[in-house]
Each structure stands twice: as C-alpha cells, then as structure tokens.
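User: I'll paste a sequence; please echo it back and then give the predicted structure.

Assistant: Echoing your sequence first, then the prediction.
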Amino acid sequence: MAVTVHPLPASVKGLSAPDLFTYPFAYEPHPFCVAAADEVRRYVNQRQEWSEEVSKGKMFGVLIVKRENGQCSMVDEWGFLAAFSGTLDGKTQHEYFVPPVFDLMAPDCYFQKEEAAISAINRRIDSLPLEQSPLRVQMETELAAYKKEMQQRKTRRDALRKTISPDEMGEICQKLIRESQHDKAEYRRLKQAWEERVFADEAVLRVRRQQMELLQRERRERSVALQQWLFRQFVFLNALGETKTLPELFSPAMPPSGAGECCAPKLLQAAYAEGFRPICMAEFWVGASPTDVIRHDGHFYPACNSKCRPILRHMLRGLNVEPNPLLPDHEKLLSQLHIIYQDSALAVVSKPAGMLSVPGKEGQPSVQEAIKSAIPSAKGPLIVHRLDMDTSGLMLVALNEEKYHELQELFLHRRIHKVYHALLEHEMPVGSEGDICLPLRPDIDDRPRQMVDHKHGKPAQTHYKVLVNKDGHALLELKPITGRTHQLRVHCAHPLGLNNPIVGDRLYGRPAGRLMLHAYSITFEGHTFTVNSEL
C-alpha cells in the first residue's frame, strides 16, 4: 500500500518549522501538527461509515515530513502523514492513512491461518459435553443424607452419656462406641460402593476430559508460538537505518499486547520506509472518552509508556529530539523549595511544581534530598506522604523515626486534613459543591496514569467547592477524603467526575506551563499551615 503525503493547509504558511523533533512523551503540539490534525478530523467526519465507531473514541496521529534531500524550509515543500491506532472499521489499512508496521489482517497472512486453526480448537473444546454423571449427583445426595443421620445418632449418644449413672457407664459406653464404629464403617462401605459405580459410569467422561486437556494444551502452545511469531514480524526502523524487532526492544520482558499498533510507531515507520525526514509529531483523541481511562475530544496526548517507550527510544535514534521538558532546572527548583516551619522532629515545606517528593531514576531534585542537605543534623528526612511532581504546595517531613510513625498513624486514621486549590479548564457555577466517588487503580499499560475501575479499583472520594471563576476558568477548593495517586486530577477530568480537567494536566487534560494544582493547607493536632500560590 502506497503512503500518501497530504499537503499542509495554507493557514500555516509563513510559520517556522521546529528546530528539534518532538519529544513524544511530553510536548505541546506544533502549529503544523494542530493544522494537520484539523485536516484529519475533517476527513474522518466525512466518512459516514466510520461515524459510529469514531464517536465512541479513537486515537489518531499526524507526522509532519519532508524529503531527506529537500533543502527548502517553506511549508509548500512539506506535508503530513496520518495514522489511527489499532484498527478502523475492522481494517488495518485505509488509503488516507499510513499502513501498519505489520499487517496481521492480510488475507494470506500466517497469523490469520493460525488464528483460524486456534479458533477451530476452541470450537472442538466447546463441543465436548462434560456434564456431571447423574450417578455422581445421586451418590453425593445419598452420602450427604447418611452423614446427616450419623450426626443425629452422634448427638443422641452424646446426650445419653450425660444422663447415665457411673454404674452403667462401662457397658453403655462400649455399646455407644460400637455403634459409632459401625456408622463409620458403613459410611466407608457405602462410599466405596458408590465410587465403583460412578467410576464405571464416567468412563466416557474421563476420555472426553483427556481429549479436552490435550486440546487445551495444544491451544496454549499454539497461541504462545503464534504470539512470539507475531512479535518477530514487527521490525522497526530508525533514522540511522537500524532495525529491531519487538522481542529485542522489550527484552528480557515480554512485549505487551498491541505493541507497535499505536500511531507514533506507524507514522515513523512509514516516514523512514519512504525516505521522508520527520519534522514534528502529535497524537490526538477524537470522540467520547472511555469510562476507564480519560480522553477528551480534540486533546493531544503523549505516547504511552508501556507499549511505545521502548519502541520510540529506538525509532528516534538519529533524530535531533527536544530535551525532556519534565527534567527541570535543578538550581531553580531548589531555590523555590521553602521550609515554612521546623522543630526538632518536623519540617513543613512548600514544594515547587516540577520537584519530586522522593528521588527518581533520572537524578531530578527531590524534597527528601533537599531537606537532608538543609538539615544535616536530622535523623530523617522521612517522607510520610507525597505530592505529584507537577503539584506544588505543602508537605510534612518527619525528621526522626518517632515522628514518622506518629504522622503515619494520623494519616491512617484520617486525622490530617489537606485542602488543595485547583484551576480548571472551564467555568462552573460559583458556590456549587459535592462529592466525587470514583474508584481508582493504576493503568498498567500506561503508567503513571490512573484509571477508574468499579470492579478492581480502590475507593477514592473527593469533596469539591467552586470558589470563583476567573478568566474563563473555575477555581476550586478540593478536599481529598482518601489519598489515591492522581485522585484529584482524575476526579476533576473524568466524565463521571467533574469532566473538567485541571489546567496544565498533561496526563488527563491539556499541557500548559504547569499543572494548576496546589496543596494550599494542611491541618493536624490543632495546627494549620497554609501557603498561597498564584493559580
């Protein structure tokens, strides 16, 4: 299938191209990508046969490209590629979009043939009747009835033992013991006789079970082999002309299902294969949000971590990529961390947005390390609770183990109360308030995102109150009753919550200068600390 390069709209003529390629895991879309995304939405909206599927929600992507040997930087020399994640209208290929990295739905593909064979095994398994033998049901009923009679006789014997005199004890006790032994022996004989009858009656059933076990083993082995074969067919290029397969990219772990079928890998693969130079890229959501993860129509989203990070790490080799915007200016952040209260056991600090609570993998500054440096005499610091890196505001830091355990107990029994201020994307009725109760769990396919899961999620409750509207945004007071990861962010953004993301929420809303979420006050043991922020 030929790759179609679409012209950029005239509206972006005169704009400068970015000097560096998009860092795909945190970015603000370039105007070229925004314009290209509008073109894709316009095209998709014209396809009535897709309307129902797309209205339920779909991720699309665009990649601005130019010829490798092209020297001119005018917009006319460039174009864009478009992609959709997974399948669209039950197909992996459509003429407007780039092809998949590997088309597992091709008619003569080995995957299709082997999947059909596995489906045939499933049908054979389903066709094997494994109904329980009627004799076994009868056996269990009769044995249960006999055991009930035995229990009744035992109850009578126990009652009799309490009424007989010492003179009668010996002879009667022996009689009762013989009766008990007879009951047990009779039960064993009855059970053995029944089991022999049932064993003979279930001969055909045992053959069917053996057949099913063999079929299940064959299905498992063929499924694993097919999955491994499929992973090897996904071969990814990069700007240096190097290639790697999914197993190589994810080793020693097993690649997750669906890896390589997202927009970003498809777009880059098509560009490299056709000799285009990638300029910038963006992925965006069209349609309704799912009920578990948060997606808003028209919002741009970073590439996912679990499926795409290992792939894109390879595919971006050879490109000049923007630095990770989440890696902060160390000295600037450290200068913005303030200790607003300190005694021998406790420090209350005001954390700036962009600083970690505890040390991370990439050497970013953290509250823990900063306090350790600022108060070297302390036996801590011991971080009792955390704020997201993007969230600013108050944190309690224990300076010895005794205070650490004391604060842990207070948190456990909900005797520490926190109030947050958040600026939301849209206005809300001033004075309105209520509770949001949406259970949360980690999105294992895209950490650190959280998702709503009414079956497996942990209970999460937030009280909100709208304080004021300003410049088209609502300023809210948020009181978390529970303390789940990203609780306030998800409860604000989710369609079943406020359906109104916090400004600057790159995970659940739109990226901006910073996340407008601030831990405004914290109260415990009769003390209240507050710190204002210009949200």
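The first strand starts at residue 6 and ends at 7. Residues 70-75 have pLDDT under 50 and may be disordered.
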